[in-house]
Write a structure and sequence with these properties.
The chain is built from 3 helices and 16 strands. It is mainly beta. The protein has one domain.
Length: 273
């Protein structure tokens, strides 16, 4: 189970990353510096791990960027049997959300990886510095490529129901682990879910996954983003061959727009906070 949890920490970050091409919404401001999102990953009745995403304003090479810092770790009994400590950083511009510099430094039960990736969007390539193996290589990338973290913010800024119909599938262009990867996803429409904050209307997505030793297959992972101006990933659930794992938003602060909560009176009322 502990190895599954380590993988799921990556699934939590990876599965919510979607690109739509350069259809930027100029008035869309779903996030800002100061935003902090914290998640608890549950395996059955157990709290198995913790993950967070934080946004700050930073300078790099004399340029202004948003820095998204991702962190994940096992907690409780899971940490006693299998220690996970993962750090991710992504520098990107907040206009079109183009990644500039990405760092991944992970420890998972004795397995380590320490990578730095510098993107050149004009030449469409990425220079990968494998610090652990002391190697540097430059690899061609695909158009509108995103790193593991920046693609989440690209989705939040660009998704529009006017572009993607219910049941329609689309594909991620992502550069991850020194490789170009594609991941098809399907938009499933709107869904109202119960959270610790109350009932929230969400947009529901399903990545296409193959059956493996861990996942049941297609439809085994589901993602919910708040259907408001924030597009916050509020829940990710994966059905495993044995049981299921669910990541829920536990805390949030510094969001760009009020979070919309449904209050069920005899009429439907929305509250914001």
């Amino acid at each position: 189970m502990t190895k599954i949890i380590a993988l799921y920490l990556q699934v939590l970050l990876l599965s919510i990353n979607i690109t739509f091409g350069q259809n930027i919404l100029p008035d869309s401001k779903p996030f800002k510096a100061g935003e902090n999102l914290e998640y608890i990953v549950h395996y059955g009745i157990f709290n198995a791990s913790y993950a967070s995403l934080k946004l700050t304003n930073e300078k790099l090479d004399g340029k202004d960027f948003l820095l998204a810092s991702g962190y994940g770790k096992t907690i409780g009994l899971a940490r006693l049997f299998f220690k996970v400590e993962d750090y991710y950083s992504s520098y990107f511009d907040d206009t079109v959300v183009t990644p500039y510099f990405f760092k991944r430094n992970i420890y998972e039960g004795g397995y380590t990886k320490n990578l730095e990736v510098k993107f050149n969007s004009e030449l469409q390539n990425a220079t990968v510095n494998n610090i652990k193996n002391q190697t540097i290589e430059t690899i061609n990338t695909k158009e509108n490529v995103q790193d593991l973290i920046s693609s989440l913010y690209y989705l939040r800024k660009n998704f529009s129901e006017e572009k993607v119909s219910v049941g329609e599938s689309f594909t991620i262009n992502m550069f991850y682990d020194s490789k170009n990867r594609e991941l098809p996803l399907r938009y499933l429409g709107k869904d109202i879910i119960n959270t610790k904050f109350g009932k929230i209307e969400c947009l529901k997505f399903m990545p296409t996954t193959n059956r493996s030793r861990i996942f049941k297959g297609e439809g085994s992972i589901t993602i919910w983003l708040t259907n408001d101006e924030n597009r916050i990933p509020i829940r990710v659930q994966a059905d495993l061959l044995v049981g299921s794992i669910k990541a829920d938003l536990e805390k949030f602060s510094g969001v760009a727009n009020p979070l919309q909560i449904i209050v069920e009176n005899w009429w439907k009322e929305y509250l914001y906070y």
